[in-house]
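Encode chain A's predicted structure.
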Amino acid sequence: MAIPAAISGFRPYEATDHNGLKKQRMVALTNLLFLLLAGPMVTFGLVFLVLLDDLWLGCEVVAGLGEFLAFLLNRRGHRTAARLLGCSLVAIIYVDLVVALGTNVGVELWSIPMLAFPPLLTLRQERKLLLAIYALFTAALVGAHLILFTQPPRIAVDAGLAQLLRTSNLLSAMGFVGSMVIYYHLRINEAEAATSHERERSERLLANILPAAIAARLKRDEHPIADQFDEVTVLFADVVGFTGFTAMHPPETVVNLLNMLFYAFDDMVERRGLEKIKTIGDAYMVAAGIPTARPDHAAATADLALEMIEFAETLRRERRQDLDLRIGIHSGRVVAGVIGKHKFSYDLWGDTVNVASRLQTTGEPRRIQVSQETRRRLGALYVHEDRGTIELKGIGPVRAFFLEGRITRAAALPLVVPPGP
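Encoded structure for chain A:
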């Protein structure tokens, strides 16, 4: 039997840092916001300087450079200062434009993103910052329009220029809002993909812990999960002398050996459609006939045990590992269910489990000890050595057999020679 040269493909479960992801999205969004504001501010400031020759309106150029400064602050980790600076500049420019040009040039269109976007610029725990930004924008919106009630716009704009400015503000506001919507749409798609990936990984993790049928019941919130199965075969395999091996070797050697052994066992179990129940130290527990009944549960378990012994022999021969397995098998009735609140475990209980465990501990190295109940279910397709009656602790006298191997079909059936012509 081939032995894996290395153990690969295992990745530890890594919990997603949802707060970290939210912070990353917020930083990326504010960076985009500062850059989207910087360009129009500088452009409009230069236009106002040329067309209207107004230095106060020309301060939009300074505000645009200030938005770029906010972008740099945000990149360097000064996120609260960056957001306060960027929002303050927006509020100041809004007041300046409304007081200077009035409401017929489309400046008030920017009040929509001013009221809509602050929640996107803050995290849930930044409630005070959110309130401060809203207070800043509300003061700017109310204050600018109150000033217009007391005095006319500072600059009289002719109808043609007013129409041009109105169109420019409309297009700029639409581009700004559209860019933010597209950005958030892309982010939402990324979040949904990440959520789907996390769900799939969680389901794979659950499938590694519980049988698929049990995991499906657990996801339906079925509780408690408890069943009785009348026809089940239970196997215990133990590494003989492993305690001494552990004391004589470094931890890496111990874990690597168990991994090599149990990874191979896991493949054997999965290939046969059996259920690995758990490992207990250096012991390995398997059951057949749960959670779905199968008529060949004893034969499937016997074949697994024979392959386990063969694999251990191969390890001893090719890797010169002093490794002996001792296996016990018993068939009968069990109770199965899921226990645990945070760490779920699918386990078995009953005399069948106890007898299988005792058969393992009273067995011999490199041999498979089975009960009479398992022997009867295996029939004539397997070779057994009758060990007689043995005493099992806590159980009493039990008839036991050593499973030697499986009889091939050619050896099991008599050879029939057809008569000649």
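The chain has two domains: 18-201, 226-410.
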